[in-house]
Structure formats: structure tokens, C-alpha cells
Design a protein that fits this description.
about 270 residues, alpha+beta, Rossmann fold, Immunoglobulin-like, seven-stranded mixed sheet
Length: about 270
């Protein structure tokens, strides 16, 4: 992620290698963004072109079909995005129709450009309830997650090893599994939750990597209501004690009367 970051020409090969190999990049605007530098350094990597930053006299809002709650956020400054690439997709706009979030695919990876800040420098978006869903929704798209995610212990079809190509799978816990020699291998050792890396002759093969998701039932956040209290040993003891409980006031009064009589009796003895 490049959040309001300055750029250096030496970064270009590293970024291209990362995104081209299947990585994702999210770029957000800010007061340190130099539109010319981004246009010259990142070039074809971007889904659009940043133009001159401007501050709004009247705040504009954000609009999205998938997250209509974005309209609650107000934006005071932005670095507009122009000349979107042919394959670019605008996933959010400003209230005046200008692109706010633009995304596209670059080789095996994905790149997104946001026309304002992700912190509170130019917008109150971080203080809105929709902020976390907005970030999560963007990251899921950049990660390329689909509804056909791998479930635990489900088989995954992978290329097998050959005499000149050794294929290995690295599980989320770091365990390495060698694949047999074959055109395709049905990899079934998917009991661990998390990201699996596939090594081709010891080098990470990004296009073969996959993720095993936890069962959806473990993430069911639907409110079930307040659970009813269960009767246990403590409850039984409590109920039993309430059954024999007696008021203390009469006993305290009797104690006070007894102390008064004792005091009078002691005084009589001293007088004798």
C-alpha cells in the first residue's frame, strides 16, 4: 500500500515485480502526492492518472452502489483521477460524478487508486461506521477472493513435479510438502486455515498459491438473543439459601434490649 507516499524511480522494478507476480497495490492520495512523479514512475501500472490536488470550498460526498453508506462521509480535499485505462473499473465516485476509487488488473496482480486520503487529513471517512466495510471490501477485491474459496480438507488441483521441475507446497504453519511426479496432482493436505504457498524449484509461484478459509459456520455473527440462565450448583445453593432466609431486624432489637438490661444490672451491682 502506498498511502500518501512520495515515489522514487528505483522503486519501479520492485513494484512491477510484486504486482506482476500476483500482488496487489492500493494507492491513496494526500499532500505528499506528486501527480507527475506517479505518472512517470509507475506509468502503465496505474489504472488512471492523478491530476492537480485541490481543496473543496464545499465538501463532497462519496457514492458506491455496493456501500450506499459511503454518502455519510464528507471529503474536503482530493487529487482527481483522470484518463482511466480501458480495463479500469470505477468502484466509487464523488457526489459530482468524478471517480473516487479506480481499479484494474496489471498482469497477474491488481492496482487501485483512491482520490482522497485514507486518514482524516481530507475526509471524515475514518470516523464513519462504513469505514471498515469500505476498506475490507476493497482489500477483498484486490486480493481476488471469490465465492469459490477452498474449504478445509478440500482437494486442490496443482501441477505435479517433473524431472526438471520440483513442486512443493508450504502450509500456513510452515510445513513443506513435496508433490509427486505427475501432470496434475490433487493436493488434499488442506486442513490448516490460511495461505498456502507453492514453490517451483524453490521459488514462490504466485499464480498457484491459494487460501483455505475457515468454515462459514464458525463466523456466523447473527444475533441469537440473550441466552437463558442455566441452573447450576451455584444457582441451587442460592435458591436453597433464599428458602430459609429470616429477617434480622427482630434479632437485632432483642440484642439491643439485652444489652440495656445488662448495663442496668451492672450499675446496680456497683452501687451496692
Amino acid at each position: 500500500m502506498l498511502a500518501n507516499a512520495t515515489l522514487d524511480e528505483k522503486w519501479l522494478p520492485l513494484i512491477q515485480r510484486f504486482v506482476g507476480g500476483g500482488g496487489s497495490l492500493w494507492i491513496t492520495a494526500g499532500d505528499r502526492i506528486n501527480p507527475r512523479a506517479y505518472g512517470s514512475v509507475l506509468r502503465e501500472l496505474l489504472p488512471g492518472r492523478y491530476t492537480a490536488t485541490r481543496m473543496e470550498e464545499r465538501p463532497v460526498s462519496l457514492q458506491s452502489k455496493t456501500l450506499p453508506e459511503l454518502a455519510q462521509a464528507k471529503v474536503r480535499g482530493r487529487t482527481p483521477i483522470a484518463e482511466a485505462s480501458l480495463d479500469a473499473v470505477v468502484t466509487a465516485r464523488f457526489s459530482d460524478g468524478a471517480p473516487a476509487l479506480v481499479e484494474h488488473r496489471y498482469r497477474s496482480g491488481r492496482v487501485a487508486m483512491f482520490a482522497t486520503t485514507l486518514d482524516d487529513a481530507w475526509t471524515d471517512l475514518p470516523y464513519q461506521p462504513v469505514f471498515v466495510p469500505f476498506v475490507l471490501d476493497t482489500l477483498i477485491r484486490l486480493a481476488g477472493r471469490t465465492e469459490h474459496s477452498v474449504e478445509p480438507y478440500s482437494p486442490v488441483s496443482l501441477p505435479g513435479s517433473t524431472s526438471s521441475q520440483r513442486i512443493q507446497v508450504v502450509t500456513p504453519t510452515g510445513r513443506t510438502v513435496d508433490l509427486a511426479e505427475a501432470d496434475r496432482v490433487s493436493f488434499r493436505d488442506t486442513g490448516e486455515i490460511g495461505a498456502y504457498r507453492v514453490l517451483v524449484n524453490g521459488v514462490h509461484g504466485a499464480r498457484f498459491a491459494f487460501v483455505v478459509d475457515a468454515p462459514s459456520g464458525e463466523s456466523d455473527l447473527v444475533t441469537k438473543g440473550t441466552p437463558e440462565p442455566q441452573a447450576g450448583p451455584e444457582a441451587a445453593v442460592s435458591d436453597g439459601s433464599q428458602g430459609v432466609e429470616q429477617p434480622l431486624a427482630p434479632w437485632l432489637l432483642l440484642l439491643v434490649v439485652a444489652l440495656l438490661f445488662a448495663d442496668l444490672w451492672l450499675r446496680q451491682i456497683r452501687r451496692r
